[in-house]
Amino acid sequence: MRALFRILRLIMASRPGVMLRGALLGVVVLLAGVALLGLSGWFITAAAAAGLVGAGAVFDVFRPAAAVRMLALGRTAARYGERLLTHDATLRALTDLRALLLRHLSQAPHDRLVRLRGALALNRLMADVDALDAIPLRFALPILSALVAHLVSFAALVLLVDLRVAVWVVATYLIAAGAILIWAARTADKPSRRVERARQAFRARLIDLLRARDDLAVYGRLGDQRETVLDADRRRGAERARLDRTERFAGALLAMTGTLVVAGALLLGAWLVRAGVFQAPVAALGVFMALALAESIAPLRRTAAEMGRMSDAARRVEHSLVPDAGPAPGQGETTPAAGAPAIELERVCFSRGAAGAPVLNGFSLCVMPGQTVALEGPSGRGKSTLLLILAGLLTPQGGTARVLGHSVDAWSPPALRRHLALLPQRSALMSGSIREALSLACPDLPDSAAWEVLRAVCLEQTIRAKGGLDWRLGEAGVGLSGGEQRRLALARVLLRRPDVLLLDEPTEGLDAETAMRVLTGLRGYLPGAAILIASHNATERAWAGATICVG
Q1: Smallest Cα–Cα separation from 509: which of 480, 533, 529?
Q2: What does pTM read for this prediction?
């Protein structure tokens, strides 16, 4: 529950004024409903009593009728305004929350990021945020409005009817309905969580089926994957049915509570009328107000049924909202040191896991501006790890890594990114135009600069033949070959014009002639940059000015 209330505070704080106005309108809706039904009951009973005693001709029907119309119209307008304000504020708050979560996710440690399956992580994040809209809309605001409406109604019943009627109506509703809702929340807790897990499993398996359908068909596993999707859907349906039974039973109990309260108010009112405490129209006022208050309780059964799902989502979202790490002591606007090596590693050590074998053990290296160095060695011996350490994505257990004269951890991330760029072994392209793909690195990219960088990586003619900068890629770069996708990702990195360029197998998938042309164009585009390449390619090692063995 603590996570739920923390997320609620975060959502409410996003648009506090709008939320407050929406909450006030929600209270107005309930109170207008109570007043409307109470006044209508009093009006009908009073008019009937006047007719029975022959005073119908002088009974004032106009003012009560006008008040009934005013309350009906006001209630409708307040309901519209409440929905408009609270839903708009909630959706905007959740939009901000999604952006905040994605920002935190992008700043997660590299080891965590490489274990994420992007589509599934995004699907989980979006589903959790979607579940959070119920916290203000079906949990906090309805409960707050119901409590305020009951308190105001209690005061009105004391003033207009009788203390005994007020205590019966309000106390019975709050005690009985509270007990029913607590029981429903506890009973529905596990089914609610299971429904959400099954829903997530269904989505994940369906994504796998759609994305890998061609491979599954080739290996004859399409039917098996389809069955796993249907199995998750069946589990979701079974848990949903169980949850619905709990919700319906809670609704029936709440309806019985409303019937009990109204019947009790009717009997108590009749007894007080016989005792001469008040007249029949006043008794009717109490009965109909009790009937109207049921409206504030009935919707909460849905809230109780979704408490498990909301709590789970709130815990996961809160766990993801780790505060942004500010610059560490000594991190400021670091600038390159004049005359210093571009890259300097001194006895760097790194191991994976608490008891893992060392990947790097006392490795040292120095690369000056304008120099190109290739790292060679068997897979898994630390070439990519060295690049990640220099990029600030991994922290060595020993030794020192310096970039442009300063320790990597002395640079603030934005400052380091201005001077250093990394092309990892696996880079991603998204659906969109060539211009949009390049603009990720340079938002205000002029066409001339785009063609210049495409020329440097030997993609100019290919892109012109396909339709130019506005030609659109499919999902994950579909439309280009593997080598062309790699070169487009390289072009995007070059647009940063870094002082230090880290490349992990940049010409993978290219023939030797094309690879040499790309590497030559790369150096021509960045003549003064220090370039460090993790390479398995003989062409890359032959092009580099020096080759160092790792491992």
Answers
A1: 480
A2: 0.67
